[in-house]
Amino acid sequence: MWQGDWAKGHAGGYGTDESDWRGQYDIWEHKQGMIAEKTEWTIDAGTNMGTIVYTIRQGVHWALNPISETSKKVGGREMTADDVAYYLTRVVTDPKSYLWRSNPALAQAVVTKTGPWEVSVTIPLDTMLTAIFRLGDVTKIGPIELKDNNLSKWQDNSFGTGPYMMTDYVPASSATLVKNPNYWETNPAGPGKGDQLPYIENVKVLIITDASTRQAALRTAKIDFATDMSAYEMDEANLMRQQCPQLMEIAAGEPTKPTLAPESIDFPADQIPFSDIRVRRALFMATDLKTINESMYGGQGVLESWPFQGVKGYEALRVSVTDPDCPDSIKELYTYNPEKAKQLLAEAGYPNGFKTKILMDVNGADYYSIIKDQWNKVGVDFELDVQETGAWNSLRNQGNYPVITDGGVASDSAFHTTPVLTGKPSNAANTCHIFDPKIDTALESIRMTILKSGMLAGLKEARELVKYAVDQAYAVPVPYVYKTNFWWPWVKNYTGERSVGYYNYPNFVPYIWVDQALKKEMGY
Hints:
This protein is α+β, with helices and mostly antiparallel strands and 524 residues long. The protein has three domains: 2-153, Dipeptide-binding Protein, domain 1; 157-252 and 486-521, Periplasmic binding protein-like II (D-Maltodextrin-Binding Protein, domain 2); 264-477, Dipeptide-binding Protein, domain 3. The chain has 15 helices and 18 strands. It has a five-stranded mixed beta sheet with strand order 13-12-14-11-15. A hairpin with a 4-residue loop joins strand 3 (36-44) and strand 4.
């Protein structure tokens, strides 16, 4: 329905750089209309209901892919408001739908065609932000003919309105796409402004699961760039620079946890002894994050990684110890101080420390061995409950385990659901067992601010919530590192973009092109 506006990124040097599109971002002020050329909403506090109104873009046609029976049945006709109303209804009511399972509150949505080119969605206010996010940026619209079709073959799923049509697919190997001649979008920025998109006629996606094979393919120019999850961590990036200095590079937009580390160390705040803030603050101050960062990540990690990463456009959500408004009590947390930690533990009734347990998957053993050594210095010892990843996830998601676990940060983009900070709407990701009325009330206020005044206003308001949450020491953060994206110089109009908007990877492809002359000049 909408996605990120390419022109509000770098756009080959002709954009506004309000975003970098190198991560997954959902700032609504950075959106442009796609299937819906306009998205508006109203709220009625008296009835506690909201209405989202989509003005459907005219002149958008379904692709006519000759290998797809579904596509041939649709016949390349113009997409209509009936299609949109049908499909939005389907995703919130069909038990097989991802949204029906992931966001059950969306089942309360009532979707109605309210004009020849207009579709409206009414929904309770407490679910409205989720509806705008999920229906607007996650949901891909399908034609009304789908209700009479069994989409059991991959060919039958190639029927969309996007810039490419898939013409071949080899499972776990490759996908081949060709330009959709009926695509509607034009280039919004630069010397090519107004050009019909996409530029590239044919796209081959290689599915290379082995990292070394993928790296070799990039070094030898068998692929033009490695995308999505193929960004390189520090050692890999240094090796790539040495072996192939011709490559272009840029840091990924979002700092992420290193591969062999937890996302965060989360305390179950509803369980003794972690229900005592003095215990939580003690263990935070007993963790020497600076030394971990310098010894393991060359000092390049971002320490303030919980509960939000604070990526471009979301800077307000990362409270750094160097920020003028950072409270002294937060600065104290980030200062390694085992003596103060012992003092707090004694005040909490644990002068000799205590024993506990940490639930973890198989990937974090080395990191936790460092934590174990540091916490031992203040008398706290723990047993590692190592689980296979599937079992570990299952135990975490039950939400009733009484031990420390590898938790997670909240997505900057989808922070309006923030299960990391609250048991509402889901306990599954609330690995800190936070059930804090102050946080719940603050989130309700932030959501209403966003609905009334926009996402940027909500982010500004959320900064005070972040200060409060960090100060409660619900979790010990992990230094997050920026990975590196590489690509060949002949890929033009590209600067490491990943997803133009939130759930839209790899929708940067229509805006880029390949300089074949340069590629030949470089010997490929």
